[in-house]
Amino acid sequence: MRPHHAASYFNLAEKAVIALGLLGLSLLLYGVTYWLFGDLPLMQKYFMLHLAFLPVHALVLTVILEELLSFRERISRRRRLNTYLGVFFRRMGIDLYLRLVGLLDNREELEGIILVQPHWHHRDFRAARRRLTQFEPQMRPDPQGMRELLEFLAGNDSEILEMTRNPYLWEFDNFYRMVVAFFHFLEQTRFRDEPALTSPWLLGHLAQEAGKTLQMLLLIWLGYLEQLKKDHPILFRSQLGVHNTVVPILLDEDWDERN
């Protein structure tokens, strides 16, 4: 007998012993009750009442409690994912954001959506996510900027591949779609030569994909900050300081001229 099958057999035998033991204990208690009071009709009445309650008991255990446990598990997974997202943004997320927003023409409109304030609550984050979903990025098909973006993604190919090995990530649609967009970028250019990257059609297509990727990245960023505020308020303020410093600099068209 294989070790795995042996363990399953003993586990099943143990459960059977427990079940028989509980049934035997129930019969013993019923016997003691009859011996003490001798009221068989009363025992039958309470037995039928308890039997009628079993479906409600099953409903509470299998539906309500299971849903509560599932909800707690989702919250726990969300917190673990948020820890991973913190690492992701430090290692490549912020750099990716800088390259994407460098191709964006309507930056001022984006700033009014994603500039998070310390006093924000759930309704503020929810409103920002709704506005970001409706936001239409106007991406510039700049050959040099697009080449830098593609080189950055190609240089982080192993990091992107590592994301696919984390089972928790696939439960969150925005992150899944963003990783798929990464691979789409890479596959669009993997088998194309350098002159193809100057094609207006290809640049326009990649610019549209870059806009979608920017939206998904910022939706993830807003969710990350909201969860961070709940779990680690001090770290939230630290991350907020970095983010709200980077964005105005990027949005200032005259920054390079004054420095």
Q: What tags apply to this protein structure?
A:
259 residues, mainly alpha, 2 domains, 81% helix, elongated
Number of domains: 2
Give the overall average pLDDT.
77
What general outline do the C-alpha atoms trace? elongated
Largest sheet: none
Amount of helix: over 70%
What does this structure look like?
- This protein is mainly alpha-helical.
- It contains ten helices and no strands.
- Helix 2 crosses helix 8 (200-231), helix 7 runs antiparallel to helix 8 (200-231) and helix 8 packs antiparallel against helix 9 (233-251).
- The protein starts with a helix and ends with a helix.
- 17% of the residues are buried.
- Mean pLDDT is 77; it is low at 245-259.
Q: What topology does this entry show?
A:
Layout lengths: L2 H35 L2 H62 L5 H8 L7 H13 L8 H13 L1 H7 L9 H18 L9 H32 L1 H19 L3 H4 L1
Helix pairs in contact: 2-8, 4-8, 7-8, 8-9
